[in-house]
Structure formats: structure tokens, C-alpha cells
């Protein structure tokens, strides 16, 4: 049966279900430039309003995977397992996690992205390490994964990995159509399934700094992704984790690398260590390994794998990290307990300081970002430093301060403890 873009758009606009044939046709025709950007944008908006059934979402995901090639690591001598975070502020977990899980005996093929808007990107962070390169060929990836001294690779996805998603995501980003559960689920899972990992742990963020603001929304997204993974033969579990306040004490590129190295050296903020170990335990269990990641972190094996992984991609793990040219301190305006440090406010401020980009392809500043000297639950006194803002472009201080205006809450007393980090588990 022949199809055309307008009838596919009309079907979804009017609340109908797309047939397998319509989905296969529209994704393929979009990839080949036959369906125009404005038609795909209209379809994305119709999907955002009307939703997609489980069958439609699975078929859409398969069509996105089929738009490119699928990697295969089944011949590696060790089990493959990966994690994906839906994106947060200060979320540097991939940096210590990938070498830690590799040091436990798994292979971690971690294809990562660059940041857009207020959420940071793993590749932007690692690119602050002098010499480090995000582009790795598939044969070199395979060598790194098979090497027992490395075992992990964090790199950019090649152009042939779900190319339909790359084009569609760029359209969604500029047409207000990112926040659709079936579109987010199929976008993330098409890339992860095409990447060829046997197992996957999803870190689905919930809260002010996340795409999904409520536990119910995050649970729906997590369930959709777990189902897609399992239907495609990828052993998938999801954790729902809090993103009301930034993870750790830094948001920025080099600042987050430095904090990740602290974690690998046995220190670092408690929340970053807790989430790294929680996710590592899930991944190690999925890989069928019987080892406690806490021991591997404590005895320095994870650090050895980090160093080998950075060197294998041209980076110098001993080089000094870039530092921003200018800093400004934000001080506490009253005495009491810090009860709120809003993730969205801190993320937007770090972005405006130069840590993030407003449009794809822009340069980020390696040294820009925010150091947090207090975390929710800490007692603070008037005038003490709460945040240090870092940037190469001091004009940005005013814009960052505006984003932070309502981000800090200090109350005279607080009876509540800071909330739990892990809010649920699916799978
Ligand atoms: N990350 C993705 O890769 N895709 C989405 O749609 C949202 C977040």
C-alpha cells in the first residue's frame, strides 16, 4: 500500500493508531528526505498530543533502529552492560561508573551525547581533559572493550547509529515536541538497542531539573523504556532517581571531571558515591558477576581503569584541568538551614556561565560552571560562601545570578531530612 505524509499526519492528528506500514514508511521516507522537516514536525506534535500505543512505540523504535546499522558485541569475551541517564544537573555519574563496572569484569560500551540547554553532556565534560577525543572507530571500540585493562569506552555515536533519531531530535528540540513519553522512550531506546549492549540500566530522573517532574510521569517513561528494551532482547531495568537538587557539589565540565576523579580516588560527595555504587550493583548483577563494586572502588582498580580508558582516547589523566578566568561568590543571605538548592536554577546558571550551549554545534567553556559549598540539609550562616560561579566571560555573572535568584531557600529550621535519592525501581 502506498502512503503519503499528509495522511499519516491526519491519522495521528485525529487520534487514530498508525499502522506498521505507515510507521515504517514515514520513518524511512524522513530518513531519505522524502518526508519534509515541517511534515515530520507536524507528526511529532500530533504524537505529543495523541500519544502512541505500546505497539506503535515498539514499531517506531524498530524503524528508528532500522534507519541505520546495529552494532554487535556478542563475540566479546566479557558481558556487555550500559547505563543511560535521562539527563540532570551535576550528573557526572557515567564518568566514575563506566570504569568501575569495567574493573568489575564487564564491558561497558557507553555511547554518550553532548549537553543541550540546562543539562550537561558527558562528552563535553570529558573533552575538558587535555588531548581526550570523543570519536572512536568501531574496531577501536571493540579493542578497548576486549582489553581487560580498559573494558570501557565513552564516545560519540557514529553517524550511522539511528540517524532518523538524530534528525528527529533536532526538529523536536526547536518545535516544542521533546516532552512526549513515546518519543523520548523510542529516541533513547533506539540508540541503546542499536549500540548492541546485552543489558541496560536506565537512570530516569525525576524533579525540577529533569524532563519529567513527577514520579508518575517518570514511572510511565521508565516502564515504556523497560518494555522496549525487553521486547528487543536487552535485559533492561530502570531506577527512578531524584533530580530536585544537583548531584554532588559541581555543575560544569572540568569541575565535574575533577569531582569524578575524587570519587575514583575514594572520596567525593556522598550522593555521587551512593548513586554510582547503586547503579554499578545493578549493572554487575545484570552481567552475572559476583563482586561488590564498593571493594573495586576502594582498592583503586576503578581508578586504574579510568586512567587506561582516558589514555586510550588520547587524554592525559595527569594533566591539569582548565580553570575559568573569572569567579564570583554567592553568599548566604540569612542564617538557618539550606532547605532548597533548585536543580533547574543551578543548571540554567551553569549553562549561562558557558558550561552549556543554546544551539547544537556551539562551543562550551571547559572551566565554566558552579561549585556548591553547601547541600540541602546543611546549616548555614549569613555571609558564608554558598556557591562559586566560574566563567571566562564575566558579563555572564548577571545572567547567572538572575537564574539563581529563586534557587536558594534558607529556613530558620528544618525538621525534614533531605529526600531519598532512589525513588523507585522498574524491571
Ligand atoms: N534524550 C534523548 O536521547 N532523546 C530524547 O528524546 C530525550 C532525551
Structure description:
The protein has helices spanning 5-13, 20-31, 37-50, 54-66, 94-103, 122-126, 138-146, 163-175, 181-194, 215-231, 254-264, 270-286, 293-298, 301-312, 343-355, 396-404; strands at residues 81-85, 108-112, 152-156, 199-206, 235-242, 250-252, 326-331, 336-341, 369-372, 379-380, 385-391, 408-411, 422-426. The model has no long low-confidence stretch (mean pLDDT 95). Helices cover 43% and strands 16% of the residues. With 427 residues, the chain is an alpha/beta fold. Helix 10 links the parallel strand 4 and strand 5 (235-242). The strands form four sheets. A four-stranded mixed beta sheet has the order 1-4-5-13, sandwiched between helices. The chain is built from 16 helices and 13 strands. The site of uracil has 8 residues, from helix 9.
Amino acid at each position: 500500500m502506498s502512503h503519503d505524509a499528509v495522511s499519516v499526519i491526519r491519522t495521528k492528528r485525529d487520534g487514530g493508531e498508525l499502522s506498521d506500514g505507515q510507521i515504517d514508511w514515514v520513518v524511512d521516507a524522513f530518513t531519505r528526505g522524502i518526508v519534509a522537516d515541517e511534515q515530520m514536525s507536524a507528526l511529532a506534535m500530533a504524537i505529543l498530543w495523541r500519544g502512541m500505543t505500546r505497539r506503535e512505540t515498539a514499531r517506531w523504535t524498530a524503524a528508528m533502529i532500522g534507519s541505520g546499522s546495529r552494532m554487535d558485541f556478542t563475540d566479546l569475551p566479557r558481558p556487555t552492560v550500559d547505563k543511560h541517564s535521562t539527563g540532570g544537573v551535576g550528573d557526572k555519574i557515567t564518568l566514575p561508573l563506566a570504569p568501575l563496572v569495567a574493573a568489575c569484569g564487564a564491558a561497558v560500551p557507553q555511547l554518550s551525547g553532548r549537553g543541550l540547554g540546562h543539562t550537561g553532556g558527558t562528552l563535553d565534560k570529558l573533552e575538558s581533559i587535555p588531548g581526550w577525543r570523543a570519536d572512536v572507530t568501531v574496531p577501536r571500540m571493540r579493542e578497548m572493550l576486549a582489553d581487560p585493562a580498559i573494558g570501557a569506552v565513552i564516545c560519540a555515536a557514529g553517524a550511522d547509529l539511528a540517524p532518523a533519531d538524530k534528525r528527529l531530535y533536532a526538529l523536536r528540540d526547536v518545535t516544542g515536541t521533546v516532552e512526549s513519553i513515546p518519543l523520548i522512550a523510542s529516541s533513547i531506546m533506539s540508540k541503546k538497542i542499536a549500540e548492541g549492549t546485552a543489558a541496560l540500566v536506565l537512570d530516569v530522573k525525576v524533579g525540577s531539573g529533569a524532563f519529567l517532574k513527577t514520579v508518575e510521569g517518570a514511572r510511565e517513561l521508565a516502564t515504556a523504556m523497560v518494555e522496549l528494551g525487553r521486547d528487543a532482547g536487552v535485559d533492561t531495568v530502570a531506577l527512578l532517581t531524584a533530580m530536585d537538587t544537583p548531584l554532588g557539589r559541581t555543575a560544569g565540565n572540568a569541575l565535574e571531571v575533577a569531582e569524578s576523579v575524587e570519587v575514583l580516588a575514594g572520596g567525593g560527595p556522598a550522593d555521587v558515591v551512593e548513586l554510582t555504587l547503586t547503579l554499578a550493583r545493578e549493572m554487575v548483577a545484570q552481567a552475572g558477576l559476583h563482586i561488590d563494586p564498593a571493594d573495586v572502588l576502594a582498592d583503586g582498580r576503578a581508578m586504574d581503569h579510568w586512567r587506561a580508558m582516558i589514555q586510550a582516547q588520547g587524554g592525559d589523566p595527569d594533566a591539569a584541568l582548565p580553570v575559568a578566568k573569572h569567579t564570583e561568590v554567592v553568599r548566604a543571605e540569612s542564617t538557618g538551614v539550606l532547605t532548597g538548592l533548585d536543580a533547574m536554577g543551578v543548571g540554567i546558571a551553569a549553562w549561562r556561565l558557558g558550561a552549556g550551549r543554546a544551539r547544537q554545534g556551539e562551543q562550551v567553556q571547559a572551566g565554566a560552571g558552579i561549585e556548591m559549598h553547601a547541600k540541602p540539609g546543611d546549616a548555614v550562616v549569613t555571609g558564608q560562601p554558598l556557591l562559586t560561579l566560574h566563567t571566562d566571560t564575566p558579563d555572564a555573572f548577571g545572567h547567572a545570578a538572575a537564574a539563581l535568584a529563586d534557587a536558594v531557600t534558607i529556613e530558620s529550621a528544618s525538621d525534614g531530612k533531605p529526600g531519598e535519592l532512589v525513588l523507585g525501581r522498574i524491571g
